[in-house]
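Human: I wish I could look at a protein chain and see how it folds. This is the protein in question:
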Amino acid sequence: MKKLFLFGLALALASCTLKEQENKNTKAYFDLEGYLKKEALRLQKAKPLINKTVVVGGKSETHKVKIADWKKELDLFIQSDINKAAWRGSFSSSLANGMSTYTSQNAKVPVKKLEVSFKGNKVSAIRIFVSNTNDLYKSNDSLSYYPDSLYQIKKVQQIRLRAEKKYEITGKFN
């Protein structure tokens, strides 16, 4: 009888652990991190040539490059994934005209909006809007990703008692 009880208890604990794991793996919103990690692997294998332009303070520089580490190149996009446990329930979502839009008004959540456009079942565009603000610093980022076409990062940064800085990185696929 004691062995049967212990077996039942072990089975119940295993069941709870599996349920917890299932809940952690369930994404409440579009799986941006998963999608971009797959894109990084695909691009790592494809090795596309990129026309990369960097603009800082109005000065522009363009080079043709092969990206050595796509996961690192797309890291700012990946870090903007809205499925973080602490952010669960912070976003409202809508679907219209082939675009899923996720928005947050929560001051503690830096990602304010994520737009994912689809053509059929394929992602055709991702746009992310991030805002970070504290007593000394304010930044607004706009990130855009168009598979096999273009990715762009625009950043406007204001540090207290300093002039505003603007950065822009654009990668165009050849």
